[in-house]
């Protein structure tokens, strides 16, 4: 029965007595005058301040805030009846008849299936009182349109407008009570707390600003509930509740905090800072609960056994142990965490969404609580069973016996026979019998036992070979699990190994309240509290003082995930350290003494770092902890490693490595962040490491610390980002650019660049030289040369160091040539490694520059005049500085011990560079005449490189045949040798069409690209597909992702999306969805306008998608489109199968090249053999790796004429 017509508030007469947080009857029960000093409208003026629009952002909330239910997190609870009623105070024995009979107030009353609530008005967000329907014993009518709602302890009297209205209300209430009782019988609800929606997360008394007496506050699920006192909480009769989906908690001062909603601000005060911190943590948990998703939980709860906690039977468990495959409640989850991740890996069904893959969810359907209880709880005596109301101590004792000791498990027939257990496990993983695998592991089978097959040595490998993906998922989740092992001689005696040695330490520390977000502000000394701290038995406890018996709080070592040491000036104490836990809390500690702080850090680290990673503790660190990672290009399995950051070095102990490895962060080739700051990508030469953030709090600290460590940390050479040869990247970038573009520039290094442009180049290089790419046309050589000189001049210690500067200058005065060179070599050996490498690279470059002095007018003497004062920072006051530079250039080969092979390589590369630029200048273009490049056979390696002169007319087929001729490679039948353009940065390659001209491709290659000739293994399958294909069109679905450059499609750059594509002879079209495909003129045509269209001739299609984009399949295409304005756009496509990929690429190949993919009769092209030498100099590559480019910045030997005047 629902009252559809609700009178407006203005039409209802109201009698107002005292408006307070408490109901009018409660005021009478204690003292009619007790609350008279509280002003009328307290909800708006004192206890509940209206939030300011300028300070509180208004979230999206329902138009009617009362449409939600009071207790549950479900979207809505059906309303049975609403309307205006006169309300009499609750009846008690000491209230007079007069007061009971004549004090009535108008109240807006709302009844749903769970609660009867009443409000001051129909516009109010928060009730005056709520009464659980489950606590109503009966409803009876009395005279004068009145009726009584009688609970176990109280009687509430209401008066309706008429007898008919009273009858409707009574019937609605009686029906709600009957339905509630029926539901209770069906669910077999516990009679202990019929009014309680679940076990509360936190309870206690708090002061509410504007209210004299304390209120009893309860945090349960995603709600905060207010009660007058503990007695009323136990009766279930409350004041109001606050839905935390629209709530926010804010710390205000030492003991106070604000709970902000769009309607009111609740200002609470706790007894102490510690108590306040606990309340903040509980309420922030309620917010997380309110904002969590139910998608995974609903899938897991499909199985009836998973709807009750596997340990205590509590309904709707929303946590799980993913290695035990059990669904558990929040209270049991806390005790599972106490057992440690080696016993139980606890994850939330609502918040840890990324953990729940399709395989893991399916695994819980096959195992889950039903199978888990059959094994782990097969022998639980009724007296030892847990219940939803069991105490934390009982839970901990029971769960330790159950999962750590295996006390109640069902024993396998092979129990105690290790060899038989291991053999049975290797057999079980090849089947779908997951319960057998669970029983074998739970009874002691070794998860990494040898299977007897070298090709599949472990059970995981056997399961993979058998294609049993659920078995693989279960085994992966238990790779690091410690299963209980019982003594086969005496089943009664149980034992298990303890990983960590006991670490003990005690003393006074200063600490602040724990926080759930990174500290942005400095904490003053006054904000720290002195606490007696004790580290013992894997628990760090802190007490009010050394005499206290009960700790204020504790941190379990098994829950610590990170330990960080901020810089000394971060907070009010010089010596501080931070402890991060799995529960997303950060604890800040401080000490008066640096030595004491260091000792505490050492002890805490020993307590939570496993023995196999203790090598990380041998040296000082700034940050230490465990992180998830994926190594190399294999993204199939997430592993857990231990990391320590010290200076610019990140040391790690990986899961599959017996010892620590070091990553030099300043030598990284790439450092980037993917996926909304959830994956840190570190690329060094030879491998890629993906570090993933499972916990935002400590991972954000890791991100900032690693980024800072990888950047240039100062002005000295050793503090710069470095290349492989210890040369600062900033120096290498400038030298490389001038070698490529400025060797013949007149007055190079003597002319100064524009001050503003020079400053801009230098600032960009100082900020992140690794990401800077200097390009001709964008930066002038004089600007770059001036930036290099300014960088060297501004070095605090100089290139030759302050301590050795005088010795270098004195050496210039030595007359004996041999003695002088020997002395220079000695001084060079005394330089720091980075200075020594930089000096060699710079002098090598200057030696090269002076070789072209007839063109650039910069001979050795002129270069010495420029660089002497720069390198020795003498401002031209000492002529010896120039003499030193001149000597080093003249005697470069002997001073730096340059061998003949290195010198020849440098000479060849510089010769090719100058020849190309001279030819380009003569024709008025940058790249004219024959181009000399390196082409590799089958793979990129020194022994496979071939240096080839590329005329303008050479095709890809001619280049391929020439490389094969040089290496005497015979072409067999169905050998499809092809020239590929390979992009190392994009991890993609493009087979060139046999008619494509090679020279334009070489002009567009970057330094990270090269050409390689190899067999195209997919060509035969492509030709067979095209032979059977009718027409030159193709259409279908592919997964699509834009590059960071905008294509105007409005798609997220972070993921792939399904899109429909149509390819024909003229263009490629993209459609958001399939609509009305119809047969038209022999081909398929779409009746609606495409979302995007590209001319087919302007596209370059590459095979492959770079791994760090996380493509959904391994069959991908990288497509590059260059517009008429030479703007480059790039996107990625993924196919579902390899055959589909070949079909799309074959069709692209076909339509882009006039219907031919491969010559009908491939033959060797007869053409003049190109001259492979220039005089006595072999042709060398113009493009290659960074090391090859760096080696090109070298001087010539005595044969300067051939370099200056190439034939």
Topology:
Elements: H1 24-30, H2 42-45, E1 48-49, E2 79-91, H3 97-102, E3 105-112, E4 115-119, E5 129-132, E6 136-141, E7 146-151, E8 155-159, H4 163-187, E9 202-208, E10 215-220, E11 223-227, H5 230-235, E12 240-243, E13 248-251, E14 256-260, E15 265-269, H6 273-291, H7 295-300, E16 319-321, E17 326-328, H8 330-339, E18 346-348, H9 358-366, H10 368-376, H11 392-404, H12 418-428, H13 434-442, H14 459-466, H15 469-477, E19 485-486, E20 494-495, E21 505-511, E22 529-536, E23 539-543, E24 553-556, E25 560-564, E26 575-581, E27 586-591, H16 594-608, E28 623-631, E29 639-646, E30 649-653, E31 661-664, E32 670-674, E33 679-684, E34 687-692, H17 696-710, H18 729-741, H19 755-768, H20 781-793, H21 802-811, H22 817-830, H23 833-850, H24 853-856, H25 860-872, H26 879-890, H27 892-895, H28 900-923, E35 931-937, E36 945-950, H29 956-966, E37 977-983, E38 988-991, H30 998-1004, E39 1009-1015, H31 1019-1028, E40 1034-1042, E41 1057-1063, E42 1067-1071, E43 1077-1080, E44 1083-1086, E45 1092-1095, E46 1099-1103, E47 1116-1122, E48 1128-1134, H32 1138-1152, ...
Parallel strand pairs: 35-39
Antiparallel strand pairs: 1-15, 2-3, 2-8, 3-4, 4-5, 6-7, 7-8, 9-10, 9-15, 10-11, 11-12, 13-14, 14-15, 16-17, 16-18, 19-20, 21-22, 21-27, 22-23, 23-24, 25-26, 25-28, 26-27, 28-29, 28-34, 29-30, 30-31, 32-33, 33-34, 35-36, 37-38, 37-39, 40-41, 40-48, 41-42, 42-45, 43-44, 46-47, 47-48, 49-50
Helix pairs in contact: 8-11, 9-15, 10-13, 12-13, 14-15, 18-20, 18-23, 19-20, 20-25, 21-22, 21-26, 23-26, 25-26, 31-32
